[in-house]
Amino acid sequence: MPIKDDVIQFFKDRFNFEPNFLVRAPGRVNLIGEHIDYNGFGVLPMALRQSIYLAAGLQPVAINCKAMLKIDNIDRKYE
């Protein structure tokens, strides 16, 4: 099963509703030029296969309820 399907399923299991959004951000490494781009020099960034996924959803709440943000991690080695 692709990781995005795992993330969606984890979200549904944890929060009991479907996510409204699923986004992916690839990792990045600078092969040369770390921090020198601030001074106008060139850099050579490269995208990585590793990435981070984020599933988010809006859950209806009572009118007088304060907004709440719940965050959970699918990878238990980072608890």
TrEMBL record:
One GO CC term, this protein: cytosol
Gene Ontology biological process: galactose metabolic process
Taxonomic path: Eukaryota, Metazoa, Ecdysozoa, Nematoda, Enoplea
Keywords, ordered alphabetically: ATP-binding, Nucleotide-binding
Cross-referenced InterPro entries: Galactokinase_CS (IPR019741), GalKase_N (IPR019539), Ribosomal_Su5_D2-typ_SF (IPR020568), Ribsml_uS5_D2-typ_fold_subgr (IPR014721)
Gene Ontology MF terms in the entry: ATP binding; galactokinase activity
The Galactokinase N-terminal domain, residue ranges: 10-57
Pfam families documented for this protein: GalKase_gal_bdg (PF10509)
Record protein name field: Galactokinase N-terminal domain-containing protein
SUPFAM superfamilies to which the protein is assigned, alphabetical: Ribosomal protein S5 domain 2-like
UniProt superkingdom: Eukaryota
